[in-house]
Every structure is written in structure tokens, then in C-alpha cells.
Amino acid sequence: MCSCKKKIKNCEFWQSAYRTSDLDKFVQEDSWIPYYPRIIQPVSANLANQILNLVMLGMTIPFKHYIWNLSYKVYREYYESYVDFVNFIVSRNQSSVFIDGGKQGFRPIFIQSFSRSQIPAKLIHLTRRPHDYVYSYAKVYPYLSKAFSMKMRSRNDIIAFAAKKWLSVHRKVLNLKKFILDENYYSMRYEDLCQDPNHFLAKTLRFLDVEYENLQQPVIYPEKFHLIGSQSIQKHGFDGVIKLSTHTADLSTEEIKIIDRITQPFSARFGYV
Ligand SMILES: [Zn+2]
After folding, report:
1. How much distance in Å is there from the Cα of 229 to the middle of ligand 1?
2. Which of 5, 22, 167, 212 could share a disulfide with 81, CB 3.0–4.6 Å?
3. In this predicted model, what pLDDT tens digit does every residue of 15-25 receive, in sequence order?
4. DSSP readout, 80-134?
């Protein structure tokens, strides 16, 4: 859903973004190039592609940007259409900020390496209390399993599955961190963000070298305002406080034990224990 209340495929803004750029060009590519933003159509995560991406990025450590010369034309093309896409969104949204919400995170690191660090990658690592993540995941699991033909699991298996997912996603982000400078990494807890969004958004904007704007201002050109994101913010508006739901009490002692055991390598590190 877009903030204009239309589905992406019916929203003129996203459809013109689709038509103007060559976005769909790489979607079907079964090669080592990074995935495109997933606004056009969901692309199922391709494990081989992910592994190749990580291997290629790993090789940028000894070989630097020269590694992309292996297949320069295709990377150049990818790089150019990505930058075109960013420029298009930035100009239409009248904002200098572009956030790539891609969950794999390969793209920003690739762009940094390919541009020889002229476009630096900055990583914002948002964490959430594992109990709440696992609870929410288990709640939507029946729908997910239907939509993506995943096998139906027992309750405890779903809990363990979600906890492992939490762990592996954070492991992935911490792996990506190796490709950037320490000062370009910033981690933030979702819980802290909800408690004081303005404070943390100001901090985030400083991290991004972007001037602080009061985010509670009315939108100047609502007809040009097209966001894909949290539907609860779209529904209830943003008044500086996001209601945080905590679910530890909704989990059984056994479920909590499973979650704590699996997520323990990182949960202490992020301050959740
Ligand atoms: Zn829209």
C-alpha cells in the first residue's frame, strides 16, 4: 500500500517511477548482480544470488573496486540505472534523502565500492526485542506459510524458526558492517525510537549529514507524497509517539526459553538481556 491509499500497482507515482527508469531490467537476471528495489514485484530471495553477492563483496576487500571490472559493462549498467532511480525518487519526493530499505543490504555496499567511495554507504542497524519480533512473526506465520507455500510447523517450531530468522538477519547486517568504516555504522533500538522518535530521528539525520527538520510539519504537497511503509503510521498519523507493543507476557515460559537460547549470541549485545 502507498500512503495515497492506493495499491502500488494503481499508484501513478510508483507506476511512473517504474516507466521512467529501467527498473525491471535486472529483476529477472539470474546472475551475480544485486537485486533491485522490490517495489515492482516481490522477487523471492535467491540463495545462490545472495551467496555470490557476498563473495563478490568479500573480494572487494583485497581487490577493491577493480573486482567489478570482471564484468564491467553489466555492473556499470546496474550502477547507472540505480543512480537514475535514486535521482528520480529524490526529485519527485522533493527531499535529498533516499533510504534504501532493501533487506539484503548488498546494494549500498556495491554502490560505495563501484563509485570508489564517492557515494559512501551508511548502515543504520535497527534492532527489536527478540520476544516481540518472534511473537509478531508467529502471529503472521499462518498467512506467510500460505502465501509463500512454506510448510506448516508446530507452535514451538515456529517460535524457534522465527528466533533463528532474527539471529540470521542480524548476523547478515553485522557481516555487511565489515565493508564500511566504523563511523558509517549506527545501531538503534526500535524500543528507544518509539519512546522518543524526535530525538532519535535527529540523531539519525546527524549521522546521515542531513539537516534536521521538524517531522511533524504538515506535508506541503500531499499529492506528491507517496510513501510505502508502516500502515499504522499512515492510518493514525505521526504525533511524535509510536505506541510500542510488548509481548513477553503473551509468550509461555517454554517459548521464552526457546527464544532466549537461540537469540542469546546477539540479544545481550543489543542490550535486550
Ligand atoms: Zn501513491
Report:
1. 11
2. 22
3. 877 777 665 66
4. HHHHHHHHHHHHHTT-S------SS-HHHHHHHHHTTTSS---EEEEE--HHHHH
Residues of CATH 3.40.50.300 domain(s) within the chain? 122-273
Could you tell me the distance, in angstroms and rounded to a whole number, from the CA of residue 142 to the centre of ligand 1? Answer: 29
Q: How far is the CA of 39 from the centre of ligand 1 (A)?
A: 12
The alpha carbon of 94 and the centre of ligand 1 are apart by a number of angstroms equal to: 15
pLDDT for position 182: 92
What residue type is 179 in one-letter code? F
Contact 255, 156 (CB under 8 A): yes
Q: Three cell numbers at 100?
A: 534504501
CATH of segment(s) 122-273? 3.40.50.300
pLDDT surpassing 80 at residue 97? no
SS3 of residue 191 by DSSP: helix
Residue type at 117 in one-letter notation: S
pLDDT in tens, 224-244: 667 766 555 555 555 555 677
pLDDT at 149 over 50: yes
Task: Answer yes or no: pTM beyond 0.85.
Answer: no
